[in-house]
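Sequence dictates fold. Next comes a concrete instance:
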Amino acid sequence: RTPIRTETSTFANAMKTPTHPLDDLTAAEITAAASVVKAALLADASDGASDDEIRFSYVTLAEPAKLAMAAYVTGEGPRPPRRAEVIATIVSKMDAYIFVVNLGDEPSVASKNPVPEGCQPLFSPDDCFLAEEIVKADEAVCAEIAERYGVDPADFGTSLICDPWSVHVATPDFEPLKWRPDGRAARLIQCFLYWRNDEADNQYAKPIDLLPVVDLNARKVIHCSRQPGATPPKIGLKTNVNYHRASLETNSYLPAKHRSPMKPLDVTQPEGPNFVVTNDRVVTWDGWSMRLGFNYREGLVIHDAMFEGRSVMKRASLVEMAVPYADPNPPFERKCAFDVGDYGLGYCADSLELGCDCLGHIRYFDAVLCDSKGEPYVTKKAICMHEEDMGVLWKHVEYRNGHNEARRARRLVVSFVATVVNYEYLFYWYFNQDGSMEYEIKLSGMLSTNLLSAGERVDGEGGANDGAPLHGVLVAPGVNAQVHQHMFCARLDVQVDGIDNVVDEVDLLTGCVGKASGVGDPFANAFGPVKTRLGTERAATRTCDQTKARTWRVSNPSVINPITNESVGYKLVPFTRGASQPVLLTGPECAVTKKGEFATKNLWVTPHADDERFPAGEFTPQGGPGQGLPEWTERDRSLGGEGGGDVVLWHAFGVAHVPRPEDFPCMNVEHVGFSFKPDGFFAGNPAIDLPPPAIAGSKEDVSAGTCCAANGHAANGH
């Protein structure tokens, strides 16, 4: 985080007056909203509560209603007012409230509502740091660790690591939920414990078998679980499995020095980039235009994506994750995270680095967020934007005369990276010259590890031959990495050439003649696409089927393609990045399934509603089942009929991760993602007008021994 100081350029950028209703909140607006909320809470408190007792979960832009924005853009309505959405808690009372604050010259409270009883707001970075402080200050926990592991309590400050996780409530009778005599719900974080020798040491090679549970409101440890049968391995805290440049030489069995570096491969753009940025966040690039947003929960948001002046996507972002761990051994039945709702991807965003996270001519965008005191801070370089060469886009050689026409692909990349405790998630939106959009997530970082449980050990003493985990893989001596899933959900507020769209499921079927199945096929060689209209919410809960090349086509019935004489459209193509993966694998009675029902299907479609934002509900920490998408779609609303309607696609996809030793100590990236491709949107190839490529900077290797040099052959000109 970068504190905002008046003498820095960061302050100047953060304090800019917003010029558009969708501009992120400025630092001044965050400060104003927090001040109004503090005053309101203190005025309502009957026992003289102080500022120190007020803790903010977030202060963010309250986006204008979609219809109000549309009226403003077309000149048919006024500019929507600037408002902030705020959640703040009076800690001593355990009362959390959702505020909407009117901004402007005289900020005021527009509305105030309590967070529903039993629900908990997300955990801010300050909450996570507080949980670690509470555990390290707990005398009973520290004494037990010192006794069991023979470590010096004086080292706890730097060597004891406490990874904060929300508590997945696997059973409603979980004791810490009801520990308070007054019956109020506790605000729980559990901390998975590890040991490291210094700041460069990899703690995930040294797991500890205690799991304290903290009540953040009470600010104390109220429960501590012990992993049955997990006696500390004798060599556990001495085995180094490191990746950090400062500790590689200490490795016990992996390489202890870096390999020789490769020759440079530089990405240069001597004439500068092709993108243009106006009004801080409005981007244009080779036919594309869009507005970039950023908030504490979703991180990067794409607004108003258009290609050649035609609308494609009104709003797109990642709105939830479900990360279940498949180990029923206590206490791991509680190990699951809903990272977007539990912690906020924007809060977890990294400050990116030139030449590592992004290559080429880079444009960075800062993000202004707030801490638990309601004070603004800046995450510098939170968003990265650059161009990439993507190889050949299209090519044909006329074999009769050898003439070659080929064009290379360029794409615009807008990305951010979130570190959610142990894992890194790298999020990329790609905008291509053929009018397609793509979304890719790369997963890296550290596996969340544990010791072996009862029934998995052989001699009970630790060491390399200490049995085998039943629900994971040994990635270091005596260290287990559990099988798990990462399920994601993207919210796609589509707007294909206008607001009224319909959605069809398209399957490739054998025996299809004339785009209809069951028609005569005398040679048994026919196959083709069959469309099924998804007319209601229940009909539109769908799963992928790779055996049918299943896609989902979004089209505008009121705009007809002059070539096909059918409605113009785009198609959602699943798993164009990485292998095709299953939906949520937990059983139907599992609490993860009931809470993360969005991940049991790959597609949901709903009519747009401003207040339907998050597929597992507004409050995921300790959240109950059936919230979000299953609740909304229970009404089985119409999706607009033949004329179409304002629809939202919710696309769930993920990675099932069976760890490997090669994933440790730091995991090489796994890929997953989807494409949104024009399908009858244009009259032909929209990239046919790309000019022939220049070859400046490319060199042919004609060193002795190559076949081309020996035989005198040369490549064609393009």
In short: The chain is about 10% helix and 35% strand. Residues 89 and 96 are 4 Å apart (CA to CA). The two ends are 48 Å apart (CA to CA). Confidence is low (pLDDT under 50) at residues 5-9, 460-465, 708-718.
